[in-house]
Amino acid sequence: MIHASNIRSLALAAGTLCIISAGTASAQAVANCPLRPAVSAERQMLNCEAGLSITVERGAHYRLADRNRDGRVDAVVLDSKAALIDVDAGRVQGGFEVVTPQAIAAVRGTRWAVDVKRGNTSVLVLRGRVAVNKVSTGQGVTLGQGQGVDVDRSRSALRVTQWGQPRINALMARLGQ
After folding, report:
1. Which ranges of 25-175 does DSSP label H, i.e. alpha helix?
2. How far apart are CA 158 and CA 121, in angstroms?
């Protein structure tokens, strides 16, 4: 039996997430996710295939991944700081995931932000729906527009909340939005 706390480790060890490139927000790009100049040095924009864009906060530690090994990015392994993901379901087949030490956030098509800091992952949905699973327990919730969840390593239940505008604005400002 596979325990939920081992999901991330097993996925990486088994090659489910084939790492395409590694680095920090200042030095990463792959063939179908070239860097695009950002308006500010505070963030980096990856203009991936049509229908997929990723904005990463400066100093973020992340890796792009190709889970099915088809040469296309379909996941971000985010260990620190924030990322904004925009996925158009009509153009990106198979969905997209953000994997953090505490959570896995997966979508078919939407716009959402993920923030990793101090043993906590926060997920905010700006458009569409996002499924978030807690790595330590396997518990999952589905978020809609304006909803968020804070995920830690404890065994406590996930609680979906409607984020207030000040919290949304603070995160979006870090991502140049």
Report:
1. 165-174
2. 11
**CATH number of the domain bearing residue 140:** 2.60.120.1440
Alpha-carbon span 175 to 168, nearest angstrom: 11
What is residue 90's three-state secondary structure?
coil
Q: Provide the domain count of the chain.
A: 1
Q: Which domain range does residue 101 map to?
A: 4-174
| Distance, CA of 68 to CA of 15 (rounded, Å) | 9
Per-residue pLDDT of the chain (177 residues; tens, 9 = 90+): 334 444 444 343 333 333 334 344 433 445 567 666 555 567 888 888 788 999 999 899 999 998 888 888 889 999 999 999 999 887 877 889 999 999 999 987 789 999 999 899 999 999 999 999 999 999 999 999 999 999 999 999 999 999 999 999 999 999 988
CA 36 to chain centroid = 19
30 CB neighbour count, 10 Å cutoff: 16
The Cα–Cα gap between 161 and 20 comes to 34
pTM, two decimals, is 0.80
DSSP 6: G
